[in-house]
Design a protein that fits this description.
Length: 180
């Protein structure tokens, strides 16, 4: 069962039909929409400021979401995929965006709707990534524009895939409970 911990008077609020891996950690001022998934070893630390997550967001294995005390928050829109081992610190990610594996987003970075941050990218503080663009590198730079329809299709395919994966684990848990 995931570790869900209150701190400073804030208790995480988890939306309907969310999957939380057994060793996911969700702390403090975190509000999550419906149909989300938080995978193995992911940590959402809303201890020093707020984390707001939309619907159908998947936060993959090893990812850390954190903020800066009284200065930055994490805001994630709908249908967002956050890849394995991402560090998202005080950044804003708009709807239908894809954050590639191993990337780092720093305070006050903004990822526009349908944008893609390539695996391993370092998005520096205060960087604004325009909607429907691909950014990559260290530090991250504009690579090219992305077709909005293709971007939306890719991101929704990944988001739907993670809904399916989560259902496998929920089925296992249900079967285990009925056997007891």
């Amino acid at each position: 069962m995931a570790l869900i911990k209150s701190v400073r008077g804030f208790t995480p609020q988890i939306g309907e039909n969310c999957y939380l891996a057994d060793n996911a950690t969700i702390i403090g001022d975190v509000v999550m929409g419906k149909d989300c998934s938080v995978w193995f070893n992911a940590v959402l630390r809303g201890d020093v400021n707020s984390i707001r997550i939309g619907d159908r967001v998947n936060i993959q294995d090893g990812t850390v979401l954190h903020t800066l005390y009284e200065k930055s928050t994490v805001e994630i829109g709908n249908d967002v995929s956050i890849g394995h081992n991402v560090t998202l610190h005080g950044a804003c990610v708009h709807d239908n965006a894809l954050i590639g594996m191993g990337s780092t987003l720093l305070d006050h970075a903004v990822v526009g709707e349908g944008a893609i941050v390539a695996a391993g990218a370092l998005v520096l503080a205060n960087t604004v990534i325009e909607p429907h663009t691909l950014w990559g590198g260290v530090p991250a730079k504009f690579i090219k524009k992305v077709d909005p329809a293709q971007s939306k299709e890719l991101n929704q395919k990944i988001a739907n895939g993670y809904l399916m994966y989560a259902s496998w684990f929920k089925e296992e848990e249900t079967q285990k409970q009925t056997q007891l």
